Predict the structure of Pectinesterase.
Amino acid sequence: MEIISPSSSSNNNSPVLATFLVVLVVLLASSRPASSQNQQSTFTINPGGAAAARPDGGKGGGGGGGGPGSFSDFVAQNVQHYVLSERKYAGKVKALDAELSAAEAAAERYVVSGDGKGKFRTITDAIKAVPEYNKKRVILDIRPGTYKEKLLIPFTKPFITFVGNPRSPPTIMWDDRAATPGKDGQPMGTMLSATVAVEADYFMASGIIFKNHAPMAAPGAHGGQAVALRVFGSKVAMYNCTIDGGQDTLYDHKGLHYFKNCLIRGSVDFIFGFGRSLYADCTIESVTKEVAVVTAQQRSKNIAEAIDTGFSFLRCKISGIGQIYLGRAWGDSSRVVYSYTTMGKEVVPIGWDGWEVQKPEHGPGALPSKRIGWSLVLSDIQAKPFTGSHFVYGDSWILPPPKSM
């Protein structure tokens, strides 16, 4: 796993929370791959994780080595790609995707209200009313209340927006788990457990609570995965939303995604998948008194679409109860980035592990000197490719959210 975490500006006697100011990078190969169906059938922390060898053949300690395929080469390639891209687009006017621009110009709004005061009583009915292969921005103005619905936004219905009142956000809630029997009587698995599944491009949400309220599973319990939100469509933006659950809360499945000012709550691997996503100014909370793991990113050479992916957390806050690992590698080249991020004392000093977590650690979360052995502190120039909307090519599609009526 590559984890870029900012290094602390404070000493070992810092207060409970420490804010990272520079960037630390780590690279780790997964000790075993997993699918979304059996992802957490076991959960133990590898006590030998800190001594594991790097994928480039190094033994740890410097994180840099020279030679073909080394971590230093990887960092240099990222910087070069970013510099070339900046030069290429510097003289061009930043423009939205043509189809997105046309959709925004023809926007229309549906009101959804459970009390019958809107055009639709349910979100399900409103989605059904959106035409197949829709080409307009359709805003579903969802009035306050709890909507007990399991939703799918199919790939044939792009440009849908959910918008709620931020002072009284509507809640979309369901309680399926991976072990829940499907229509064929067999366990539905992690992917189908989602309360809301977004398979369409250009989806947007603002001021919505996405919740899976299945009973909290013990870490690694078979069939305990319970997804609140699965995002498979590309160019998806989420603003001021709460994504609430336990194990596998947010399935950041695939595509370009932008999360801004969101609250994400969970326990084991509660942000996972192989999306290429930027989390800006988000709050990440552990809800388990046992060991929690924030991410399981699946960047892998074995999945063609996954190799250029990763999660970047910018100016976020990580806290909660129990002990928190920043992540563990789901794929062979998993990539997670933490920059300018505040980490509470609940974050264990080693930060992350390969796949098997067994032995909790202790201490404040922002202690880069305690991180895994093969770590590397990056300069601002080296960190730049990961720390802005350019990470998700946002100039062509990221727009501010519409307001609730």
In short: Helices lie at 71-90, 98-105, 123-129, 189-192, 380-383.
